[in-house]
């Protein structure tokens, strides 16, 4: 059975925001990898990530009035305290923390300790319903939204991620629990979980372990960022096939135009229907560039 295209809960997804760096950066913050990344930003990246593009996307997103908004990491560039503070202002303008949720990307953890310190600035946006941290769980309108952190420091020239054994163990518990509750489980992780989506130097180091948990406990959809490109993939799980979807950067003009995704998730007998609309930046205005509808059949869904 099909749900109408307008029905269900509306979940917006954007990623890799890369807000502009302040004009001046304290030289004391430019240790190791940050100096290299600042050079990269000044040379090239500031031309790719445009605040006016991001503003256009956010205005378009607000016009759609989604019920929930997921931001899958890389809001900053160097993971500096001033960037965390600016990103907090941006999150506050995006929406209420009750419906806006965030996970970190590799840029938030550019150097050791950056994420651990900066995370406090975004706390209301990553708190789980139980007041806990990663992996957090929020139950909203029949959905179980689960956020993982894959933000770890890596050597210059690399942008790898790792979820870690502790988060994976907790993820398995949360997936099993919310399956029993009959919820539609959406997992968010900055780094793509499927092999070959990004180059080896940008990969999720423990992707096989993450996939093993998702395959065993089941999941209804996985959302990621990191590649700055669109990805529409699938993975097999014990409960059925699940879409694995990556959204381009919300501020970039390259390698793909900036975009945000809208997922309309509606319960249907014996499963869920997820209708995806991609809203893409174009010189003449925002364009709807792709629509896909996934029909998920699940034993734990209401008959
Ligand atoms: Fe990233």
Describe the protein.
There is one protein chain. This protein is of the alpha/beta class and 303 residues long. It has one domain (11-21, 30-256): Metallo-dependent phosphatases (Purple Acid Phosphatase, chain A, domain 2). The chain is built from 7 helices and 12 strands. The chain has helices spanning 33-48, 51-64, 81-94, 114-118, 123-126, 165-180, 207-217, and strands at residues 9-14, 68-72, 100-103, 136-140, 143-147, 184-188, 221-224, 231-235, 242-246, 259-268, 271-280, 287-297. The chain has a 6-stranded mixed beta sheet. The protein has a 6-stranded mixed beta sheet with strand order 4-5-6-7-9-8, with helices on one face. Helix 6 runs parallel beside helix 7 (207-217). The mean pLDDT is 93. Fe (ii) ion binds at residues 74, 105-107, 159, 190, 226.
